[in-house]
Design a protein that fits this description.
Helix content: 55-70%
Number of helices: 7
Largest sheet: none
Shape: globular
Structural class: mainly alpha
Number of strands: 0
Distance between the termini: 79 Å
Length: 150
Amino acid sequence: MLGAGLRRCAVAAASRAGPRGLLHSAPAPSPAAAVQSLRCYSHGSHETDEEFDARWVTYFNKPNIDAWELRKGMNTLVGYDLVPEPKIIDAALRACRRLNDFASAVRILEVVKDKAGPHKEIYPYVIQELRPTLNELGISTPEELGLDKA
C-alpha cells in the first residue's frame, strides 16, 4: 500500500516536471504563496503594549545607564513604527538628567515630534503629558529654544 502511494507521488512529480526532467520543475510559487508559507512559521511570543512599555521604562530607569546605552535605546525605540508613550519618554528624560545630558533630552523631544509625522495632535498631547516632568527637570522643548524655526 505504501509503495502504491509513493508511485503516485513520483508520477505526479514527473508530470509536473515537464520534458526536461526533475531538475527543471514547475514554475516557482507566487510571492503571495511564499509570504503565506513564511507566516506559518512565525511561532514567537507576542508582547502586549503594556509589556512593551514596561520593558522600555525599566530599560531607561536603570540606575547605571550610560550615555551609549541611552542613545542605543532611543535609536532602537525610534526604529519601531510607533510614537513612544509619554511614560517611556519620561523615563528617557530622567535618564538624561541622571547623565546631565541636556542635548540628548532635547533631541529626544525632537525625535518624538518627528515620529508623530503628519499626526499633528500627537506631539502636543505628549508635551502636555510630559509638562510636569519637563518643569521638574528644567528641560525646555525645542519650540521654547527656537529650534523649530531653524
